[in-house]
Amino acid sequence: NLNLFGSEVALPAQCLGEIKNLTGLDKALTKFSDNRFWHARLDLINTLHEHFPGQLQALSLLLKAVKDEDAQLRSAAVSALAEHYRDDPKTLPLLRERAAQDEDAQVRSAAVDALAEHYREDAQTLPFLQQRAVLDESPKPDNEKEIYFQKYVRHSAIEAIAKYWSEHPNTLPLLRDRAENDPTLWLRDRAKELIEEVERKQN
After folding, report:
1. Segment 90-138, tens digit of pLDDT
2. Which among 122, 155, 158 is positioned nearest to 140, based on CA atoms?
3. pLDDT of 39 over the 90 cut
4. What is the pLDDT of residues 144-178, one digit of tens each?
5. Which is nearest to 157 in space by CA: 182, 121, 122?
6. In a 10 Å sphere around its CB, with 0-12 CB exposed, 13-18 middle and 19+ buried, how is residue 101 labelled?
7. Which of 37, 68, 62, 31 is nearest to 47 (CA)?
8. Long-range interactions of 93-101: CB distance < 8 A, separation 24+
9. Count of H-run helices and E-run strands, the chain
């Protein structure tokens, strides 16, 4: 049995210090599989992509983490895959799938951010983000504006589009549509601000 205060489960920092290789990391992820220790698994995933980038076994562990029951862990794994395994053929389809289908808005937002940052040159990225900016249910009409780590998908999408595709002919029309028709008041207001920012860039 897992004992938070006993010797069987080390504190995350202690556990990280003991990990010497990927096999040890995999064992640690299994050891902390209980959802009470999501913070430990998150630290382990961060160690994975910091200290073992580019290794195939690390890729396998990240692909496993993308399916973890904890949303923060899935978000971290999504970001790490895009950053360190951009060219792996499994990464881009997986990011699109997470951005559209993950049950948690945090994970979908992380995938949207990763697509915009690492796959801007892919011809399908902008149309995909345009779709997410309109169709995703996050934020709900009564959701408050983002605070702390809370992120919303439509917000992430319009921010990315305005930042990376400010010169694209479809960007201003999309933002104007969102400023008028997005169901969330504060996001309509943000779309109006982005319109002004994009227009300044274009001029």
Report:
1. 999 999 999 999 999 999 999 999 999 999 999 999 999 999 999 999 9
2. 155
3. no
4. 886 666 789 999 999 999 999 999 999 999 999 99
5. 182
6. exposed
7. 62
8. 94/63, 94/66, 95/119, 96/124, 96/128, 98/66, 98/74, 99/128, 99/132, 99/153, 100/132
9. 11, 0
Q: Structure tokens of 44?
A: 């382990």
CA 84 to chain CA centroid, Å, is 14
Q: Hey, what long-range contacts does 14-17 have (CB within 8 A, 24 or more apart)?
A: 15/40, 15/43, 15/44, 16/43, 16/44, 16/47
Could you tell me if 79 and 113 are in contact, meaning their C-beta atoms sit under 8 angstroms apart? Answer: yes
Q: Is 76 exposed, middle or buried (0-12, 13-18, 19+ CB in 10 A)?
A: buried
State if pTM tops 0.70: yes
How many residues belong to the chain?
Answer: 203
**Digit-coded pLDDT (tens) for 2-32:** 333 233 344 444 454 455 555 555 665 565 4
Residues 114-127, buried b or exposed e (16+ Cβ, 10 A)?
A: bbbebbeeeeebbe
Retrieve residue 166's tokens. Answer: 């400010």
Report whether 152 contacts 182 (CB < 8 A): no
